[in-house]
TrEMBL record:
It comes from the Bacteria. Its cofactor is Mg(2+). Its EC number is 3.1.3.12. Removes the phosphate from trehalose 6-phosphate to produce free trehalose. Transmembrane segments: none annotated. It comes from Pontibacter saemangeumensis. It catalyses: alpha,alpha-trehalose 6-phosphate + H2O = alpha,alpha-trehalose + phosphate. The keyword Oxidoreductase does not apply. Belongs to the trehalose phosphatase family. This is Trehalose 6-phosphate phosphatase. It holds the Pfam family Trehalose_PPase. Keywords: Hydrolase, Magnesium, Metal-binding. Pathway: Glycan biosynthesis; trehalose biosynthesis.
Length: 277
């Protein structure tokens, strides 16, 4: 199963999953983790304004310490440059636009999903969405290099359907694009078989992490993280933060961003006690 996305993943109710905090040493079982983290809802709480989703200094210190003892990557739906700016750590890897745009230490930068040809369609869709949604109160059209998120969290309830309908119509005009779900957003993404799970596999290969003593751990809170949970089932550990509207392919849970930080601290301490670090 190594390096193949798992399309037959088991699904669970998030509330029924065991806590990842119960016994961290037992969880990693003497292996060395490679940690993949979502940003919004995982490293920073969900807030009304995406520009205000700022990570705390404490979380930054926690990530810095973790990255001193194992590989750490942030795998986000955000624009890669944007998430780099929010996290501000240069010893991490960053996968932005749901994995289409990847950077890392020593000037690593690559765009492995092959999405360049979707850029003109994204540009056109961006213009149409700005124009057609300009009168809707609270709507936000967020352009990323390889995606557009149409945010409706702050849109009056009676106008949400109109936002969704316009967004679907614009997607239908561009065969190069497809629809993606998210928390109070509808996304336009390149119509390609590439997602966060494939980005994780790509990073594991690139960083030579496909080793029997390495344990990939993916932590996320949103539906887009399900691709990564499903991909890692059987070869790693998926940790769901809170819950979303669907069943999850994660096998452990954490309640919220605070518990993510406690877990990452515990992981760092556990790794340090292991003989091979
Ligand atoms: O994969 P992620 O790093 O979790 O990114 C997913 C999306 O996160 C952002 O939107 C979400 O968080 C916002 C701030 O808390 C919130 O206002 C919004 O409702 C959420 O959907 C980001 O703005 C998107 O681009 C990402 O795709």
């Amino acid at each position: 199963m190594k390096n193949q996305p798992n399309s037959f993943a088991q699904r669970y109710e998030a509330k029924d999953l065991p806590s990842a905090l119960a016994d961290v040493a037992k969880l990693i079982n003497g292996k060395k983790p490679a940690v993949f983290l979502d940003y919004d809802g995982c490293l920073s709480p969900i807030v009304k304004d995406p520009d205000k989703a700022v990570m705390t200094e404490e979380m930054r210190d926690t990530l810095r310490r973790l990255a001193d003892v194992c590989s750490v990557a942030v795998v986000s739906g955000r624009d890669r440059a944007n998430v780099e700016k929010l996290v501000q750590l240069d010893n991490l890897y960053y996968a932005g636009s749901h994995g289409f745009d990847i950077s890392g230490p020593n000037n690593m930068h690559t765009e492995p999903g092959g999405a360049k040809e979707a850029i003109p369609a994204l540009d056109k869709a961006n213009i149409t969405l700005d124009e057609r949604l300009k009168d809707v109160e609270g709507v936000l059209v967020e352009r990323k290099r390889y995606a557009i998120a149409v945010h409706y969290r702050n849109v009056p309830e009676d106008q949400v359907n109109r936002v969704l309908q316009v967004t679907e119509e614009v997607i239908a005009q561009h065969p190069e694009l497809k629809k993606g779900p998210g928390k109070k957003i509808m996304e336009l993404k390149p119509n390609l078989d590439w997602h966060k799970g494939k980005a994780v596999l790509w990073l594991m290969e690139e960083l030579d992490l496909n080793q029997p003593d390495i344990l990939p751990i993916y932590i996320g809170d949103d539906i887009t993280d399900e691709d990564a949970f499903a991909t890692l089932q059987g070869q790693g550990i998926g940790v769901m933060v809170g819950e979303h509207d669907e069943q999850t392919a994660a096998e452990y849970r954490l309640e919220d961003v605070d518990e993510v930080q406690v877990f990452l601290e515990a992981l760092t301490q556990t790794i340090k006690k292991q003989p091979h670090v």
